[in-house]
Amino acid sequence: MREKHAERDEKRTAVEEAIQNHDYSAWKELHEGMDILEKVNTEEKFEKLIEMKGLMEDARANMELAKEKADAIAEEL
Length: 77
Known about the structure:
83% helix; extended; 0% strand
Protein backbone atom coordinates (compact mmCIF):
# COMPACT_ATOMS: atom_id res chain seq x y z
CA MET A 1 0.00 0.00 0.00
CA ARG A 2 2.78 2.44 0.88
CA GLU A 3 4.44 1.64 -2.41
CA LYS A 4 1.30 2.66 -4.32
CA HIS A 5 1.10 5.91 -2.36
CA ALA A 6 4.77 6.60 -3.03
CA GLU A 7 4.30 5.96 -6.76
CA ARG A 8 1.25 8.24 -6.85
CA ASP A 9 3.13 10.97 -4.99
CA GLU A 10 6.10 10.65 -7.35
CA LYS A 11 3.82 10.95 -10.37
CA ARG A 12 2.03 13.95 -8.86
CA THR A 13 5.38 15.62 -8.26
CA ALA A 14 6.49 14.86 -11.82
CA VAL A 15 3.24 16.30 -13.20
CA GLU A 16 3.67 19.48 -11.14
CA GLU A 17 7.26 19.82 -12.34
CA ALA A 18 6.16 19.39 -15.96
CA ILE A 19 3.56 22.12 -15.47
CA GLN A 20 5.98 24.47 -13.71
CA ASN A 21 8.53 23.94 -16.48
CA HIS A 22 5.91 24.24 -19.23
CA ASP A 23 7.14 20.84 -20.45
CA TYR A 24 4.32 19.53 -22.62
CA SER A 25 6.24 16.42 -23.68
CA ALA A 26 6.84 15.29 -20.10
CA TRP A 27 3.26 16.11 -19.10
CA LYS A 28 1.89 14.24 -22.11
CA GLU A 29 4.00 11.18 -21.31
CA LEU A 30 2.76 11.18 -17.71
CA HIS A 31 -0.85 11.21 -18.95
CA GLU A 32 -0.46 8.53 -21.61
CA GLY A 33 -3.71 6.63 -22.13
CA MET A 34 -5.78 9.16 -20.18
CA ASP A 35 -8.87 10.96 -21.50
CA ILE A 36 -7.43 14.42 -20.83
CA LEU A 37 -5.14 13.97 -23.83
CA GLU A 38 -8.19 14.13 -26.07
CA LYS A 39 -8.70 17.76 -25.01
CA VAL A 40 -5.17 18.86 -24.21
CA ASN A 41 -3.53 17.59 -27.38
CA THR A 42 -1.30 20.51 -28.40
CA GLU A 43 1.29 22.69 -26.68
CA GLU A 44 -1.06 25.65 -27.08
CA LYS A 45 -3.83 23.85 -25.21
CA PHE A 46 -1.30 22.77 -22.57
CA GLU A 47 -0.42 26.43 -22.03
CA LYS A 48 -4.15 27.18 -21.65
CA LEU A 49 -4.36 24.36 -19.09
CA ILE A 50 -1.51 25.97 -17.16
CA GLU A 51 -3.29 29.33 -17.30
CA MET A 52 -6.53 27.73 -16.08
CA LYS A 53 -4.69 26.00 -13.22
CA GLY A 54 -3.18 29.32 -12.15
CA LEU A 55 -6.56 31.03 -12.18
CA MET A 56 -8.05 28.23 -10.10
CA GLU A 57 -5.22 28.53 -7.56
CA ASP A 58 -5.83 32.29 -7.37
CA ALA A 59 -9.56 31.71 -6.86
CA ARG A 60 -8.86 29.22 -4.07
CA ALA A 61 -6.56 31.69 -2.33
CA ASN A 62 -9.16 34.47 -2.65
CA MET A 63 -11.87 32.19 -1.26
CA GLU A 64 -9.72 31.37 1.76
CA LEU A 65 -9.06 35.06 2.39
CA ALA A 66 -12.76 35.90 2.02
CA LYS A 67 -13.67 33.13 4.47
CA GLU A 68 -11.16 34.40 7.01
CA LYS A 69 -12.63 37.90 6.73
CA ALA A 70 -16.20 36.57 6.98
CA ASP A 71 -15.27 34.51 10.04
CA ALA A 72 -13.76 37.59 11.67
CA ILE A 73 -16.95 39.55 11.04
CA ALA A 74 -19.05 36.67 12.38
CA GLU A 75 -17.06 36.76 15.61
CA GLU A 76 -17.83 40.48 15.97
CA LEU A 77 -21.57 39.92 15.67
